Task: inverse folding
């Protein structure tokens, strides 16, 4: 099924675009040119053996990967070799590469080692050392583009201490054209923190593009004024996603200001000064080079009798039976007589988890693969609403002699929606700014009708529908409609105030961007658009009542975890560990300064532990939820307060509980420690401190345990990193 507009927005949030520095050749160090095969006639293909040798000349392939296989791929008149090295035992890992079959350029490589280690392994290399290795590889492989790229600094990435694979530093160089960023192109390099090996490499450099000259562009001030006068942001109702999928909390509705779907990511053509809009059926505007694909749901072949599955997750008793749901579908769409109902199940609705849905699948005989056809449909088990269906390509979709016009295609879509959702169709309007995020098949038209309440759009509610203009049929339909109370749009900041606030946080920047037309042609535009600051958590919305930035979960943007490169830790005993905590976004209360000698609070430590798990959204937890999680996981006991300090004895207890070794720590009479002040350790703390010290979690100098000494932020960072490095029992 076609991806929804809201999904595209979420994808766009996580893409990369910030300021960075250029590496001159003498800084990069290595000046060896890439090993390639020259093309004297402009079109000379290399052999698979030559491609393999190019990879071997530039990368070290572990000897254990003795099994090799090759493949050839042809896409858009560009051929590439796929080269794969594997161990005899597939679980031992693999090394994979792709090489351009004409130029001999390495397009990408990826390797992973198995079996997975039992615990996190702290990196041996620093981030700076890994960066030098990545920079040398850039010169070696794509040195010809050296002056056309910049390394993105302070890139937001998802590091965590629970990864089974080697800790990998990731670096991204972005393409420049006329000194202007072209976000869709560049090079990515991943370097192992353990041994400096290249874990992944990706080279994306689109050829034969025509870039408009950066002459006579409108000024930034004028672009800002156009952004405000258009206006590019609008007042909407927003239903936040649940932070936890299993949460039973009631859905909330927020009034927010966010970028209007009618305009392409807030982009303004820098030459004409006009806001970027596109006919959703004619082309796709991509400011970041997002890739997408049509997802079609194919049923699993089966010759077994019809199956019936009742989800155990439901706490509601369905008010309609499966047969009732089938009758509802048959009243809405025609089910050909040769399609058989082969499966049905009752499960939570992925869009509204508190609802139960009948999923019904009809298909032709599985043995007839060449003429295989299917229809799947969804019916709300409580209300009986027909909420979705999809079908295989109609048999007459190849006859393109008399396709529907765009206007007739829209009319067909609207007539269908009036039939299946007569009352709700009165409450929606066509979202002219929505589009399918890929190359639209020539015989397809896709429409999104957005729900409106109090005259305002509801960003995640509405109807999606796809029409085959050749077969003259609706082939996909989806309804997302929340049963929820909407607040009155009162006591909100003005549109002007919201726009000014938005542009303060996301100022307009000039860059090149691609338009993909339906005829497969690509067009480059020079645009001004809101800066994403290269963050995984781009502030896309403003709370219309407070003016604060909010994220996809409706939480204050300021609570989200961002990577930090701390400036006040050089020479500290825990410099490496603090740097790792900065990369995962933990302990960033002071921005890019860490305050290593400051006391750590219980709350800061607990939040850092959750960040170490890689779940950055836990940074938005309030104190009550944070304490509840810590108590449920047995990290803290008793009436410990989040704002209280921790001494070394209590830090040891918390860390030992974190690694599930408390039962060992509580054994009496087996622990002795070589500390000068061993007698000052309370008997109830001795086992914890002995284990924490013995496992390398607790940093102790001068042979004094100092159990009552208050723990610093540096000591806490050291303890967390080394706790995750312990091979310990799993819950």
Result:
């Amino acid at each position: 099924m076609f991806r929804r507009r809201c999904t595209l927005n979420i994808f766009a949030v996580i893409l990369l675009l910030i300021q960075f520095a250029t590496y001159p050749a003498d800084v990069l160090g290595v000046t060896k040119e890439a090993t390639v095969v020259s093309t004297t006639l402009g079109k000379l293909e290399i052999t698979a053996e030559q491609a393999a040798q190019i990879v071997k000349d530039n990368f070290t392939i572990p000897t254990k990967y003795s099994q090799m296989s090759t493949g050839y791929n042809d896409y858009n008149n560009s051929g590439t070799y796929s080269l794969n090295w594997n161990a005899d035992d597939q679980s031992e890992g693999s090394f994979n590469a792709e090489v351009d079959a004409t130029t001999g350029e390495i397009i990408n490589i990826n390797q992973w080692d198995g079996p997975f280690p039992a615990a996190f392994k702290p990196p041996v290399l620093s981030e700076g050392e890994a960066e030098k290795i990545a920079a040398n590889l850039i010169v070696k492989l794509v040195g010809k583009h050296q002056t056309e790229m910049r390394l993105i600094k302070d890139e937001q990435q998802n590091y965590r201490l629970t990864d089974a694979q080697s800790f990998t530093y990731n670096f991204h160089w972005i393409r420049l054209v006329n000194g202007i960023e072209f976000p869709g192109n560049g090079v990515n390099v991943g370097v192992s923190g353990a041994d400096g090996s290249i874990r992944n490499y990706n080279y994306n450099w689109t050829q034969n593009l025509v870039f408009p000259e950066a002459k006579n562009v409108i000024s930034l001030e004028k672009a800002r004024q156009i952004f405000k006068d258009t206006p590019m942001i609008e007042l909407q109702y927003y239903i936040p996603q649940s932070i936890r999928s299993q949460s039973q909390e009631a859905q909330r509705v927020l009034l927010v200001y966010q970028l209007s779907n009618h305009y392409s990511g807030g982009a303004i053509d820098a030459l004409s000064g006009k806001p970027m809009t596109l006919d959703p059926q004619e082309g796709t505007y991509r400011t970041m080079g997002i890739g997408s694909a049509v997802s079609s749901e194919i049923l699993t072949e089966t010759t077994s009798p019809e199956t019936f599955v009742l989800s155990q997750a439901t706490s509601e008793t369905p008010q309609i039976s499966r047969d009732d749901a089938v009758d509802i579908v048959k009243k809405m769409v025609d089910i050909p007589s040769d399609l058989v109902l082969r499966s049905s199940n009752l499960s939570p609705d992925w869009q509204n988890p508190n609802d139960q849905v009948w999923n019904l699948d009809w298909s032709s005989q599985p043995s007839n693969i060449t003429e295989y056809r299917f229809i799947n449909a969804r019916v709300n088990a409580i209300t009986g609403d027909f909420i979705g269906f999809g079908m295989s390509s109609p048999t007459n979709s190849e006859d393109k002699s008399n396709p529907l016009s765009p206007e007739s295609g829209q009319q067909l879509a609207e007539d269908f929606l009036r039939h299946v959702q007569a009352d709700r169709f009165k409450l929606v309007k066509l979202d002219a700014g929505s589009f399918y995020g890929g190359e639209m098949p020539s015989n397809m038209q896709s429409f999104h009708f957005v729900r409106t309440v109090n005259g305002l759009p509801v960003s995640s509610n509405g109807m999606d529908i796809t029409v085959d203009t050749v077969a003259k049929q609706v082939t996909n339909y989806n309804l997302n409609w929340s049963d929820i109370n909407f607040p009155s749009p009162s006591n909100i900041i003005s549109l002007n105030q919201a726009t000014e606030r938005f542009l303060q946080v996301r100022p307009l920047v000039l860059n090149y961007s691609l338009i993909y037309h339906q005829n497969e042609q690509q067009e480059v535009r020079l645009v001004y658009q809101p800066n994403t600051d290269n963050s995984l958590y781009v502030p896309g919305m403003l709370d219309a009542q407070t003016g604060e930035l909010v994220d996809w979960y409706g939480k204050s943007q300021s609570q989200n975890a961002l990577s930090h490169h701390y400036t006040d830790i050089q020479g500290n005993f825990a410099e490496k560990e603090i740097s790792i905590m900065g990369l995962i976004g933990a302990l960033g209360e002071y921005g890019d300064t860490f305050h290593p000698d400051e006391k750590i609070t219980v709350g800061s430590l607990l939040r850092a532990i959750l960040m170490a798990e890689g779940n950055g959204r836990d940074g938005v937890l309030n104190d009550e939820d944070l304490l509840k999680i810590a108590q449920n996981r047995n990290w803290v006991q008793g009436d410990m307060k989040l704002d209280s300090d921790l001494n070394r004895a209590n830090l040891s207890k918390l860390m030992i509980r974190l690694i599930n070794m408390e039962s060992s720590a509580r054994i009496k009479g087996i622990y002795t420690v070589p500390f000068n002040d061993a007698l000052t350790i309370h008997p109830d703390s001795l086992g914890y401190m002995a284990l924490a010290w013995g496992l390398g979690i607790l940093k102790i100098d001068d042979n004094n345990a100092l159990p009552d000494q208050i723990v610093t932020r540096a000591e806490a960072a050291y303890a967390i990193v080394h706790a995750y490095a312990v091979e310990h029992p799993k819950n």
About this structure: The chain has four domains: 19-204, 231-292+490-557, 307-480, 572-724. The first strand starts at residue 20 and ends at 21. Confidence is low (pLDDT under 50) at residues 1-44, 281-316.
